[in-house]
Amino acid sequence: MSETNSPRKVHVKTWGCQMNAYDTERMIGLLRPLGYGVTEDPGAADLLILNTCHIREKAAEKVYSELGRLKSQRKDGARIAVAGCVAQAEGAEIPARAPQVDMVIGPQSYHRLPELIARAARERGEVLETEFEAEAKFDALETPREADGPTAFVTVQEGCDKFCTFCVVPYTRGAEVGRATDRIVAEVRALAAQGVREVTLLGQNVNAWRGTAPAGSGEEVWGLGRLCRHLARIDGIERIRFTTSHPRDMDDALIEAFAEEEKLMPYLHLPVQSGSTRILKAMNRQHTAEDYLRLIERIRAARPDIAISGDMIVGFPGEDEAAFEETMSLTREVDYAACYSFKYSRRPGTPGATMRGQVAEDAKAERLARLQALLDEQRHAFNARQVGRTLPILFEARGRHEGQLKGRSPYLQSVHAEAPEALIGQVVPVAIERAGPNSLTGRIECSAAA
Ligand code: 5AD
Ligand code: SF4
Questions:
Q1: Segments forming the whole domain that contains residue 444
Q2: Is residue 36 a contact partner of residue 10, using CB atoms and an 8 Å limit?
Q3: Beta bridge partners of 440
């Protein structure tokens, strides 16, 4: 039996996407009933979890060097688990190279964490758990969740069937699985009852989500647009967001939801990856550059103020100067509010890794610098355009300075304003006075301060 007066401590280091951040939160939730509290200090932890990301660069190498560091930092008897996509991809390689690792857990197996810890404790040997059981994972994650402030992420979909030729996600996260409608609705209701005002629906391919319509709705299948409208009717929910979307799955109902549902925030992360139709084809994106631009036009017609964000890859195999220029011109045409950009990174096991026409590193770096200069300019201009406007800001927490709160604009920009703490969790009109490269500053309108 455990000693209840000596709670155990877990330390988690998280890399990568919001999905991973969410998984970390869920793993902590699963460990709490076992008496584990969170510590920021790896040296104080009884259990160290590395929640890893495999999407770019030498992810596995970073994990091994972190494991080397932990070996000397950890306290006696502390156990080490490697979770996330590197765990999925490397599997048994990890304990073979780093014998200090007790557990390797793929993203589909977190619900088994308590059982694995118990087993590791018994055997003190390596434990491998990387089987795909996404449905079971969703089931086990139905433990009640504690809200942490006025915003929350809610997973609605896992995995990806798209097989873009650069990407490891279909291999590490498995096939697309949608979470059941009733479960999503129940989770959002429970979060709203705890004071959550904004939910962000998460999925690698979130707009591919389909779910059985709730009984009595008179409909059969719901898509994401219908789900967003339904969630918007839950008491307390004031804002809905979702990420990440694929252009192929942007259906009319979802575009219409942007036009008609005010609570659906005017911000859409819609990666295109390249502005060259030839490269898009090699990437297996299943649409042309023209398709993407027409889609953006339709979305903007539905919601004229929508902020578009994206992801771009430069230096995919076969990308020459002319193809890169097409990326630059598509970027100019879209005029992104925010956009992430990356050098193509060869991921073993993906088709792109063995394609002819790999681009030299210095050419990739030079193109990335040009693209990022343009994207920085666009982001700064987008921020500057907010000065003089009054925006509804959802205050989330205290700001860096005394008396200041921080929140988000509808367009996901960070906003700072002097405001009483009582306004945390409320949507308040803020007159935007200044714009920096990464945040805005403003003054709350008098009526809100009263
Ligand atoms: N190389 C570079 N960028 C990549 N991404 C995914 N795989 C790779 C890769 N092999 C980027 C894509 C994706 C984002 C999450 O990461 O732009 O949208
Ligand atoms: Fe990867 Fe493409 Fe799936 Fe996105 S859509 S997760 S880039 S395979």
A1: 390-449
A2: yes
A3: 415, 435
Instruction: Look at residues 265, 291, 312 and tell me which one is the last residue of a structural domain.
Output: 265
Q: Let me know: does 204 contact 157? Beta carbons within 8 Å.
A: yes
- Is position 3 within any domain? no
- Statement to judge: residues 176 and 258 lie in one domain: yes
Q: Whose CA is nearest to atom 2 of ligand 2?
A: 164
158 alpha carbon, closest ligand? 2
Give yes or no: residues 372 and 296 share one domain. yes
Grade residue 33 by pLDDT with cuts at 50, 70 and 90.
confident
Cα 240 off chain centre by: 15
Q: Mark whether 297 and 340 lie in a shared domain.
A: yes
| Number of neighbouring beta carbons within 10 Å of residue 238 | 20
Question: Which residues have C-beta within 8 Å of that of residue 289, sequence separation ≥ 6?
Answer: 272, 274, 275, 276, 277, 280, 326, 330
What is the rounded CA–CA span in Å between residue 399 and residue 415?
A: 9
Task: Name the domain count of the chain.
Answer: 4
List, chain by chain if needed, residues with CB within 6 Å of any ligand 1 atom. Answer: 55-56, 166-167, 271, 273, 311, 313, 342, 344-345, 347
Q: How remote is the CA of residue 55 from the centroid of ligand 1, in Å? A: 6
Per-residue model confidence as pLDDT tens digits over 259-312: 999 999 999 999 999 999 999 999 999 999 999 999 999 999 999 999 999 999
